[in-house]
């Protein structure tokens, strides 16, 4: 248990409160504040800036050093040597698979790629111009109506639930796109690799064979891999919290998708492109930089800054490299929007405001540019983030249920009226 102790004195309290301090395998120690409630005290940490809400062994981030590890492996090494499905295995099991384990894992994912034919009817209830994230939340939540057995979190059902999610998310995501453009849904093609199959379901149609482009398929796989998990971010914490009540896992994942949607989180990749379009021309960049720096203006440079990374986002480094590869492959290095993006990045990196606040391009600055280059419409960007992050969500959901746990129940600093008697107005 704890070797170290923290001692807290509070004005008006005679005793010194001793709190245990725990050390993880790496990273900051944590002060166990659970005893405070018995002293009539709560901790106060809006935005969970200093709060470790759980113990976890899946992913580690050192924001100051720009380190991201899954199961101890640096993200750069995984991006270079591994692929998305292997990282899925790692996140779920804590270890990289042997070749035999990988083969079985990939085969099992492929066995689950189709969605129940009944699900296609859900789509008809939506307007064609509905935001695909709205459809995604609903359709993934609806999976709970098909797979109610997953509610019982034994190891067997958890694994099955994870396979279903990994396999079906690309199918559902592509269905959202096809529905929006009025084309028939494309069935999965299991002879293709995971990312290639997704691109086939997005861009293939019954009239023409889909032609694989290995550079784009690799870039897609990298986008999936780099977004796979990011420890206790807003959407993952939402999934854990929803899961803590014992809710159906597919419903929990739907809650994660909802939390991801906002522009401060996964919606940033879409917001980056919207911002670039709004800037419109390199000559307008200065004005937008000025707005981003104005404390009276709510405008922020989308794709810049991160709550945890205060030096650089290691995912962004890899993403930038992939971005260059994709632009070269497609011969669109001179796309006007991409030129604005590059100039914006350069100006912001040299500007004192951004340097002092340690605001660097994050993963979503470059992923938006790549996705646009591949031909994916802007409103699908966050859907692709959700597809990628699903493995992180279900791994955390599973970790939560694999040990002793409690329903999540934060407390508050109450500032409303004190007790008063009812009077008719
Ligand atoms: N543009 C201009 N100023 C900014 C930005 C930005 N993108 N981000 C932060 N700041 C300023 C902010 O105004 C504040 O300035 P001051 O100290 O003068 O008041 C200072 O930097 C600290 O900002 P903060 O709001 O306290 O930082 P935070 O940790 O709460 O917010 C963030 C992190 C990611 C929400 C924020 O940087 C932001 O809104 N970025 C743009 C949205 C974005 O790109 N989000 C994607 C994150 S990566 C994907 C993911 O993992 O979800």
Q: What topology does this entry show?
A:
Blueprint: E1 4-8, E2 17-22, E3 30-31, E4 59-62, E5 67-70, E6 73-74, H1 75-81, H2 84-93, H3 99-110, H4 120-124, H5 132-146, H6 155-181, H7 194-203, H8 214-226, H9 234-243, H10 249-260, H11 268-279, H12 285-293, H13 314-330, H14 336-350, H15 352-356, H16 363-374, H17 381-401
Antiparallel strand pairs: 1-2, 2-3, 4-5, 5-6
This protein binds carboxymethyl coenzyme *A.
> What about the largest sheet?
3 strands, antiparallel
Biggest sheet strand line-up: 1-2-3
- Compute the number of helices: 17
Rounded to the nearest angstrom, the distance between the terminal CA atoms is 57 Å
Question: What does this molecule look like?
Answer:
The protein is mainly α and 425 residues long. Helix content is 50%, strand content 5%. It contains 17 helices and six strands. The strands form two sheets. Strands 1-2-3 form a three-stranded antiparallel beta sheet, with no helix packed on it. The protein has a three-stranded antiparallel beta sheet with strand order 4-5-6. α7 (194-203) packs across α8. It is globular. Carboxymethyl coenzyme *A (CMC) is lined by residues 230, 233, 263-266, 268, 292, 300-307, 357, 359, 362-364.
């Amino acid at each position: 248990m704890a070797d170290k102790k923290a001692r807290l004195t509070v004005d008006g309290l005679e005793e010194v409160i001793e709190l245990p301090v725990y050390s993880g395998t790496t990273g900051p120690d944590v002060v166990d504040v659970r005893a405070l409630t018995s002293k009539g005290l709560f901790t106060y940490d809006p935005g969970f800036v200093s709060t470790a809400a759980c113990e976890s062994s899946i992913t580690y981030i050192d924001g100051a050093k720009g380190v991201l590890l899954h199961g101890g492996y640096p993200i750069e090494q995984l991006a270079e040597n591994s692929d998305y499905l292997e990282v899925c295995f790692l996140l779920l099991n804590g270890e990289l698979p042997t070749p035999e384990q990988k083969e079985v894992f990939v085969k099992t994912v492929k066995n689950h790629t189709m969605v129940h034919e009944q699900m296609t009817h859900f789509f008809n209830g939506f307007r064609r111009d509905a935001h695909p994230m709205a459809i995604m939340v609903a359709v993934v939540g609806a999976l709970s109506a098909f797979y109610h057995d997953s509610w019982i979190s034994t190891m067997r059902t958890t694994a099955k639930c994870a396979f279903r999610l990994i396999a079906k998310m690309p199918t559902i995501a592509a269905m959202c796109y096809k529905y929006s453009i009025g084309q028939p849904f494309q069935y999965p093609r299991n002879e293709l690799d995971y990312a290639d199959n997704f691109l086939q379901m997005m861009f293939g149609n019954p009239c023409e064979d889909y032609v694989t482009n290995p550079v784009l398929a690799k870039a897609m796989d990298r986008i999936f891999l780099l977004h796979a998990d990011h420890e206790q971010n807003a959407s993952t914490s939402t999934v854990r919290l929803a899961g803590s009540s014992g809710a159906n896992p597919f419903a929990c994942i739907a809650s994660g998708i909802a939390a991801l949607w906002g522009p401060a989180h996964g919606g940033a990749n879409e917001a980056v492109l919207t911002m670039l379009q709004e800037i419109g021309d390199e000559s307008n960049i200065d004005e937008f930089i000025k707005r981003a720096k104005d404390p009276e203006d709510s405008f922020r440079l989308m794709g810049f800054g991160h709550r945890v990374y205060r030096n650089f986002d290691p995912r962004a480094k890899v993403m930038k490299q992939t971005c260059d590869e994709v632009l070269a492959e497609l011969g669109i290095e001179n796309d006007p929007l991409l030129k604005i993006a590059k100039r914006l990045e350069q100006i912001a990196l040299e500007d004192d405001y951004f340097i002092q606040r340690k605001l660097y391009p994050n993963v979503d600055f470059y992923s938006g540019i790549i996705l646009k280059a591949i031909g994916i419409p802007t409103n699908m960007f966050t859907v692709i983030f959700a597809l990628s992050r699903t493995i992180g969500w279900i791994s955390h959901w599973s970790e939560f249920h694999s040990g002793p746990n409690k329903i999540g129940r934060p407390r508050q600093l109450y500032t409303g009226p004190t007790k008063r008697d009812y009077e008719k107005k």
